[in-house]
Amino acid sequence: MEELTRNCLTGKVYAYCTRDKVYRVYEPMNTERKFLTFMNHIQGWDQVTGKPTLFICSSLKDVMSLDSLGIEADFIAPSSENANIEPIIEWVNEYPNKYVIFDNDSTGLRMMNRYKEQYGIPYIHLELSKDLSDSVRDHGAQNVKSIITSLM
């Protein structure tokens, strides 16, 4: 606990939480285990407003990056790309337009294919950088937005 407290004070540990529960702790400098997950939580769930399009992203960072592009949609991210979304699939299927946009790596590609096969949700394979937020940083917001909207 002393180590966690010291790291928190130096800005090296971040907690993802709701108003009453911590569901994940992120320690970016830890090379062995960056995340400690205490419970599954759909990141972005609290900001959903019922727009006609839903994006399922790989992380809260990607949710925020996608939202910053000004695409008129709701954005969520399960606790990981491997997380089970079965408990919310009926809710997801209420969206007339829905897309998965996970990382541009083997896990992301495998899981986007699984979502398409298992749930019939199409995916957008953004082949620019490792993930959506890196793509925005490396290639510019307008370029990424143009590519995503052309693939929708």
Helices and strands, with pairings:
Blueprint: H1 2-9, E1 14-17, E2 22-26, E3 35-37, E4 53-57, H2 60-68, E5 74-76, H3 89-92, E6 97-101, H4 106-119, H5 132-139, H6 141-151
Helix pairs in contact: 5-6
Describe the structure.
By secondary structure, the protein is an alpha/beta fold. The chain has 6 helices and 6 strands. It has helices at residues 2-9, 60-68, 89-92, 106-119, 132-139, 141-151, and strands spanning 14-17, 22-26, 35-37, 53-57, 74-76, 97-101. The protein has a 3-stranded antiparallel sheet, with no helix packed on it. Strands 5-4-6 form a 3-stranded parallel sheet. Helix 5 (132-139) crosses helix 6 (141-151). It is globular. The model is unreliable at 1-7 (pLDDT under 50).
In short:
By secondary structure, the protein is of the alpha/beta class. The chain is 36% helix and 16% strand. The strands form two sheets. Strands 1-2-3 form a three-stranded antiparallel β-sheet, with no helix packed on it.
What key attributes describe this structure?
disordered N terminus; Dna Topoisomerase Vi A Subunit, Chain: A, domain 2; 152 residues; three-stranded parallel β-sheet; 6 strands; alpha/beta; 2 domains; 36% helix; three-stranded antiparallel β-sheet; 6 helices
- Element order: H for helix, E for strand: HEEEEHEHEHHH
How many domain units? 2
The coarse silhouette is globular
Which CATH class of the largest domain? Alpha Beta
- Number-wise, the strands total 6
